[in-house]
Structures are given as C-alpha cells and as structure tokens.
Amino acid sequence: MRTPVCERLGVEFPLFAFSHCRDVVAAVTNAGGFGVLGAVAYSPEQLDAELTWIDEQVGGRPYGVDVLVPGKVDAAALEGGHLMDFVPERHRDFVTHLMSKYQVGGSAQPMAATADSFGRRVTAAGASSLVDVALKHPIGLIASALGPPPPEMVAKAREAGVPVAALVGTVEHARRQVAAGADLIVAQGTEAGGHTGEISTMVLVPQVVDAVAPVPVLAAGGIASGRQMAAAMALGAQGVWCGSVWLTTEEAETAPAVKQKMLAASSLDTVRSRSRTGKPARQLRSAWTQEWDAAQESPGPLGMPLQMLIAEGAMARITTAAERGEPGALELANYFVGQVVGQLDQIKPARQVVYEMVSEFAEAVERLARLSE
Amino acid sequence: MRTPVCERLGVEFPLFAFSHCRDVVAAVTNAGGFGVLGAVAYSPEQLDAELTWIDEQVGGRPYGVDVLVPGKVDAAALEGGHLMDFVPERHRDFVTHLMSKYQVGGSAQPMAATADSFGRRVTAAGASSLVDVALKHPIGLIASALGPPPPEMVAKAREAGVPVAALVGTVEHARRQVAAGADLIVAQGTEAGGHTGEISTMVLVPQVVDAVAPVPVLAAGGIASGRQMAAAMALGAQGVWCGSVWLTTEEAETAPAVKQKMLAASSLDTVRSRSRTGKPARQLRSAWTQEWDAAQESPGPLGMPLQMLIAEGAMARITTAAERGEPGALELANYFVGQVVGQLDQIKPARQVVYEMVSEFAEAVERLARLSE
C-alpha cells in the first residue's frame, strides 16, 4: 500500500491519524501510520510540552501538527478588549437557561478565566504562535484545518522543510489551497466529524484528485476500516486521514460518558451543527445541538470564535456533570465525530486499529483483484 | 468484475442503470449492464407499452422495473374523493404566487386532469397494478424504491421467479427489507439523487453488507465513474446502482434546459428537499426549492403524495416555459439528481458511459493491486 506520499513523508502506511491526544499520535506513528496532533486546545507552552513528550516516544518516526486557521472570524472579536465582552447577553442567558433546564450541577463555567487566550488561538495571530512552537520540533507535516494556510505559515514551513497540508471540502477550495502553497490536500467529505462541508467523500475525492494533480490527495470522512481505506484509494487518494476512529481507542482522552455515547450511537446519531464552534461541524446529536438549532427560544449560534467560547466553557461543565452521572448533563453532552460512529462499538488500542485497517485493506484489494480476473 | 449477482441475474457487468427513460434502459442492457425502468410516471397501460418496446430492443438480455411503494403516505389521501381535494388552499395559492412572481407563462397547471391517477400510483394499491403489468414481461428484477416491498408484491414476484430488490438508506431498513423478502439490497447514500437518507455511501455500504450477509448488496449514491464503482465494490458491494449519470446521456428524456443546468452545476448545487414529493429527495437547488424551503410565506411542503401532485403539475408548466427560455422558469426548473452532477459536463451515449465506467474500473483495480505488491 505504499504511495508516493509514503516516500515523501517517510511513513510505512498512508494512514494519517488526527487526534487531540498525544498518546494516540504516538501510538499510530509507532505502529507505522502518521499521527497528527490537533493543536487548537493548547497554549504555545502546552503544545511545546506535548510535542516534547511525543518526540521522546516516537524515536524519530514521522508525525505532524494541525492548527485551526479560520479564513473568516467574527471581525469584532479581533479588536481589542476581552473576547467574552463580545458575547451578547441573550447568548449568555440561553446557556444559563440550558444549565438550569437540564439541572447541570457544578459552578458557573470556568471559561471566563481562559476564554480569551483560547479564543485568540483560533485567530490567525494565535495560530501563528502555535506554528512557531511546532516548527521547533522535528515534525514531518503541518496542517491547516480551515481556510488556506496563511502565507507566513507556508513561508515558515518551507524554510523548515516541512510539507504543508490543507483540509478542503470543495474543489474550489482545493485549488485555492494549492495556489496558497499547500503540498498535500486532505479532501474531506460531509460525513466527517468536526468542521465539514456538504459534499460526500465518494463524490469529492475524485474531483479534487483531478483538479489538483499532481499534488497528492488524502481522503477524509467516512473512513474507519480497511474496506473504506481501499475505497478511498480506489477513488484516487494516496492515503487516508482519519479522526473519529481514534476517539474510542484506549488511548483517547474522550470523556468516558461521551465514549459510551459513541459506542452506543448509530450512523444516524450525528448532525452538522454550528452550536459548538460557530461553523458547521459534525458531532453527536444531543440536547445541546437540538436546543441551539431548533428550540424556539434559541438565539441561534454566534460566529467563530465567539460560539466556541461559550460552548466550550459550558461543555467543560456539562462533561464533568455527565461523568458524575447527572441525567440532564448526559443528554447535553456530545463531541465532534463523523458518521462512522455507527461502526465503533468496542474500545481498542490505537495500534490494533492501525493493524486491523491495514490487514482489511489488503483483503479488500485482493478481493477486488480477483473480480478482475 | 463478475460477482455472484452477475451469475444470478445473467448480467455481464454489475452496473445497474435506474432511469425513467426506456432508451437508457435498453442501451445499458445492450451494453452489458442492467437497465431498470422507473415506473412511477406511467399508467399501467403506458408501462405495458414501454416494456413491450424494451423487450423488442434487448433480445432477451436482462432488465428490470422499479416501482415506488411508499411505506407511509398521507392517510387522508387514501380515503375516497379526488386527491386534489386534499390539497389545502394556501398550498395552491403559494404555487399561484410562485408562477406570478417568476412570471411563468402558459396556462394553469394541467395536473388536475391527471393528478388523481398519478397520485394513486404511489399508493400501495396503485403500485400493485404496475407490478402486475411488469410481471407479464420477461423482467429480471423488480425493485421497491421506498419502504419494504409489500407481501403481495414479494409473493407475486416469487411465483414469477423474479428477484426482488429494495432500496435502503439505513442498516435498520436493510434488515427490515430482508425480513420482508428482498433478495437484493440497494444501499443508497445521502449523496444520491431522489429520495435519500442522511448517511453517506462510504459509511452506509459496509454496515449494510455486514448486516444482511449473505444477501447481496449494490451500492448507490455518488457513483458515476469507474473509480467510484471500484470504491463501492471495495466497500463490499457486489455491484452499483446509478441514476444521475444517465440524465445527461443522449438517450435521456431530461428536458434540454434542465440538462444544461446539470452540465453547468457543481456538486454544491444539489439539496435534499421535500418540495417536490413530500419526502426528502435530492435535486438541483433552484428557486423552487429555495422558495418552498426558506421563503417566509412558504406554507411548507405537504406529505407524499399530495406535494407530488402540486409540484409535478407546476413543474410540467415550468419546464415547458424554461424550454421557451423564460428566465423566471429557468430559475425555478430543477430535477432529481445526486451530488455527482458536478462530474457531468458532457452529453454522451449511454453505451459510452457503460464502457468508460467498466474500463476505468479495471484501471482503478489494477492501480490498487500494484499498491499491494
């Protein structure tokens, strides 16, 4: 299953694992795949510590870092003052109302203290400081999760000899990302978890492959097994970029109550909603998404990063309450995950997931080859 | 590319072509695929005539018929009286308003005359008379497009030795269809044109394959090229069921103005909307879908079959006006099509589409096999 991307990035299997958890990143890289750490939740200092830990674990094997660089953010949020000052009263009130309606225990959200630095990290300037930290480590890839990589990021990565990857949901965006300097395109279908577009992986990948050739393309969205990996590569992808499948691994830091929800969920139990980040992101359908998206009294989600501030603050409290078994909090709790959640019904080590995918990939390819005889 | 389904149905390539146009059905069957005629638009007499024509063209090669058997229809519509009597005044008024707003010429919709028989055909009783007609012809497959095949349909097909196929959008429906007697499951992803669910082909197909084994599964949704066919079969499907790709063939009866819209459309230009049939169906996004789904004054779509009555009557007039080049009618005009519409940019003979898919399939499988060396 070696493709040109494998040669370029020095990886055995073209299986990329996006995770916010350093243990998953290290485990996948050590199993022959390519771990990519999602950096958005970290301060520059924390990111440095996480990458140092990964460096110690992987013994020079390749891994990467993903930063969130939104193309457009709420303009007001970029001006001076505390970001929380820009959250309207009725949005704060709606969160208070939800906490009360669902009887979520615990003290008021602790977000106020950290909200500002958190929110700033999803602005271009904030992402830039994470890029600086990442490039001080021996990373093999830097990825831009939203919008074209800023010129400064591309220039710094080039200087460091690190390829730049960019996630896209349309052909138009893929062309724009290549023009902005992306060395590798991740074409992500609507079935993916997190920020995602409307076009399915099956439809998107071949169009992107044709549009940006010879730039290599990885497929993302709907891929959590070897058959799906083989399908993605039949479409012309040189590898796959998976996120959801790691959320139910042993190593994942997914809150146990949310992990249980994922193991129980079917593929119908996700929704693309703006209620957590301000941009459409696929996640478990829960009382949180229902209330924000459909309740009469909902003020509607704010843009990014403001919605992220109020949602992540509230979700921290909700998740803690869900861990205590509070029923209302369990109804509200959710997390970003793709439609493949319906396939995830067992907690496994990340290494085992890699080996099973590689082995099922080989079986699928052999089965296909026999059809052509 | 022969799979057990090929043996069972006596077909060379497991490429199924769903079309409302007899010319497409005959062309695909004669090229080695398996044409399936969508019967919903025909009266029993018309269907008989169409199938007689196909019989003469295909010289014993296999083809099939697809009927629309909705599991649930608007209960009121099943009681006595003319179906049109059940359409509320504000829905009629909204159609009149749209015709006026978009300055659609031509006389009031001619639907009233034919609406009743048309609407009745999408009830269980109506579908049954189409099944009787179909089984008098040497068909190789009968398919149920919505809901489990009724016991009577399964019994009649069994007696005639004709396998029954059923379209599904969830694992749960697949299990139910097999329990109801389906011999073949068509797992259709959300990217498909027409009535469709929420789960993507990439995610749905492997789950359905595992759930109903050893019952064979065809993949539908997002498949209009050989790479996509290879991907579907890597997922475990024994063949593919394609609809959209035939709409821009030379043989298709697609209205020329709508065909041009399809050739120009990108994969972002479709929407799942209830505005044409009363159930969520993917179609070109147009002023029609926008007005019904988002305009403040929209009364919201009715259920099936009532919405179908008003929509098809209005669409007949809109399409005729669009053919005259009326700009408002061109804005409103649309048709059912999947996200693959973004790949369709050239009018080709149906036979050429079959040959190109088969040839690209072989290339994709060879490319994959080389990766495993």
From TrEMBL, chains A, B:
CDD domains listed in its UniProt record: NPD_like (cd04730)
Top-level taxon of origin: Bacteria
Pfam families reported for this sequence: NMO
Keywords, comma-separated and alphabetical: Flavoprotein, FMN, Monooxygenase, Oxidoreductase
Keyword Disulfide bond among record annotations: no
Gene3D superfamilies: Aldolase class I
EC numbers for this chain: 1.13.12.-
InterPro entries linked to this entry: Aldolase_TIM, NMO
Molecular function, one GO term: monooxygenase activity
Protein name according to UniProt: Nitronate monooxygenase family protein
Organism of provenance: Nonomuraea bangladeshensis
